[in-house]
Amino acid sequence: MSHQTHKAKQQPTCCMSQHADKTELPRSRFHSFWDHLIEFIEQSLFTLANQIQEKEPDPAAQIARILAMALQFGEKNPGMARVMVGDALVNEHDRLAARMSQLFERLESALRQSYKALADARGSQTPTVDAQAGASLAISVLLGRLHRFARSDFKRLPTEYLDATVRQLLS
Q1: pLDDT tens digits for 83-130?
Q2: DSSP label at 11?
Q3: Which of 21, 52, 53, 77 is at 20 to 30 A from 166, Cα to Cα?
């Protein structure tokens, strides 16, 4: 390429930044959409989880109700279930996927509190370990059920055999 041809293709920095601003504007609005959707999911799940923990004195019932609530939320909102498991966020900003991971970490923390109270009530010698293991397993089941729901084109309901599953998680 000759020096003159290369020079003709160069754009001044001010033109490049103006062009970048125009192309980034729709993208930032789209990210704002995802942010608002994730915020709605967070508010919905944590408002209900907090209410359950405040009103329900039995830690086993807290665990069962929080899991049922989260699975039912995904079942009633299939598009949001795809967001929750990250399928809808593929090729989006990594920050959005990290935010969903943080949501599940916070939900696991809430479940850990209930599992700790359950372990204490049962007289466990290792209540902290039991709480960690129980909450981790419960979140794994929750994510697995939501993934299966999304992969099956919403045919395999996440609440399938929910009572039996919860009994296993609480045993």
Answers
A1: 998 887 777 778 888 999 999 999 999 999 999 999 999 999 999 999
A2: -
A3: 77
Q: Which residues of 92-125 are buried (b: 16+ CB within 10 A; e: fewer)?
A: eeeebeebbeebbeebbebbbebbbbbbeeeeee
- Is residue 54 a contact partner of residue 60, using CB atoms and an 8 Å limit? no
32-38, long-range: CB within 8 Å, 24+ apart, which pairs?
34/83, 34/89, 34/92, 34/93, 34/96, 35/96, 35/99, 37/80, 37/83, 38/83, 38/96, 38/99, 38/100, 38/103
pLDDT confidence of residue 88: 78
